[in-house]
Amino acid sequence: MTAMQHGRLAGKVALVTGGMGGIGHAVSRLFVAEGARVVVADIQKSTEVASLETLDANQVFSELDVRRPDSWASAIQLSRDRFGAPPTILVHCAGVMVIGDLMSSTEEDFRKAFDINVLGTFHAIQSVVPGMREAGSGSIVVLSSATGALTGTAGLAAYAASKAGNAAVTTTAALEFGHDGIRANTIAPGGVDTPMSRAGAAVDLTNFFAPMPIPRIGEPDDIARAALYLASDESSWVTGTVFTIDGGLTAGIH
Ligand SMILES: NC(=O)c1ccc[n+]([C@@H]2O[C@H](COP(=O)([O-])OP(=O)(O)OC[C@H]3O[C@@H](n4cnc5c(N)ncnc54)[C@H](O)[C@@H]3O)[C@@H](O)[C@H]2O)c1
């Protein structure tokens, strides 16, 4: 099947990490619907939201551990082999939540969060930039979190620190690669209904959403639509931003 000739990402090749997860799956589905071809990269071949059978002809799976540069090289090579070009869009959703407050967290907790969430983002950017430079343009979209990028969160010490870190790596990329035609933006979601939030809710969610200006949990598509805007040429003057999508959670005191 050939790529769609129309859509907001017509003709583009994207790499979506964490592509078998809640947000990554929604992103890669929406991108294909908008004309992109997508390398879906994840450490898991199947999750409760996606499996190899759910992939479309314009998606190809790459087994990727974000901590391993060789695994990034394979994902980029697969893009060249299957789609004839390196990705000029990266949506980096792969990440882990590590639960624990400051007194109970261990060095190991911090190392795990930093290895996957911060060093993973560092490897992501080092891996995609050469192909984007070759193409003369690129858009990097990194999933951070309102936790860390905007606020601390009691009970999520290592996770918050790592999410502050991956947002900083992304903003630095915006500064260092802007003159190569490469934009880099961070998305900072509030609570989104995915396996991560279901398994890892650090707080009792029963009354969590009620006081928010938009009192509901986020859906993966709420985030995917923002990723689409940031990935597409519609955001051609947008770089170095932290795009908050949280139903007003961090707007102020409520
Ligand atoms: N769900 C939320 O409430 C929420 C809120 C704020 C930010 N985020 C961020 O959004 C991103 C996506 O999260 P999600 O909610 O879809 O979670 P998810 O757990 O559904 O998806 C995360 C995916 O990352 C993959 N992954 C984990 N470690 C990996 C590794 N070493 N290499 C490659 N892939 C790996 C997992 O296999 C999984 O498919 C994460 O970075 C997360 O921190 C989520």
From TrEMBL:
EC number(s) reported in the record: 1.1.1.-
Domain Ketoreductase: 12-193
Pfam families reported for this sequence: adh_short_C2 (PF13561)
Keyword Zinc: no
Keywords of this entry: NAD, Oxidoreductase
Family under the similarity heading: Belongs to the short-chain dehydrogenases/reductases (SDR) family.
Protein name: SDR family NAD(P)-dependent oxidoreductase
Organism name: Nocardia jiangxiensis
